């Protein structure tokens, strides 16, 4: 049986509150970071998930391992308490977020380069047109 896990961690990333969605499917981790601004209430988080989850842009997938579930409820409670004390995200999530940032950076560079080339071509054509007009004596 295949297990799909989604986890949202909300933490204070000075000066804003941020959230990290971690999606694990087929031993692959993908991550998306969002910024809430002010501290979100539970109802606001729930509403955000319902409205915007499908629009979130997750990072490329990173290989990860899945731990077995615990049957001891006291151990599970201790782990939850320890997770609450921790702030931030796991290192694999940070790696996935860094990869996503790099991909977005490359996309922006390619897009801006294409726009610069188009603008340069337009200027060249306008310059050529002006030269033709001058040559005709107009």
UniProtKB/TrEMBL annotation:
Region called Disordered, residue ranges: 69-138
Transmembrane regions listed in the UniProt entry: none
Biased composition (Polar residues): 85-99
Basic residues biased stretches: 129-138
Comp. bias intervals (Basic and acidic residues): 69-82, 100-128
InterPro entries: UCP021328
Name the record gives this protein: PF11208 family protein
């Amino acid at each position: 049986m295949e297990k799909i896990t989604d986890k949202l961690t909300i933490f204070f990333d000075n000066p804003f509150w941020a959230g990290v969605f971690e999606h694990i499917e087929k031993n692959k981790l993908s991550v998306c970071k969002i910024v809430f601004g002010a501290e979100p209430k539970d109802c606001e988080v729930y509403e955000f998930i319902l409205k915007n989850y499908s629009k979130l842009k997750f990072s490329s997938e990173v290989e990860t391992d899945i731990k077995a579930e615990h049957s001891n409820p006291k151990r599970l409670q201790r782990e939850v308490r320890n997770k609450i004390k921790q702030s931030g995200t796991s290192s694999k999530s940070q790696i996935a977020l860094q990869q996503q940032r790099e991909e977005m950076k490359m996309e922006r560079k390619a897009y801006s380069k294409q726009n610069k080339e188009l603008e340069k071509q337009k200027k060249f054509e306008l310059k050529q047109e002006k030269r033709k007009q001058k040559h005709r004596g107009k």
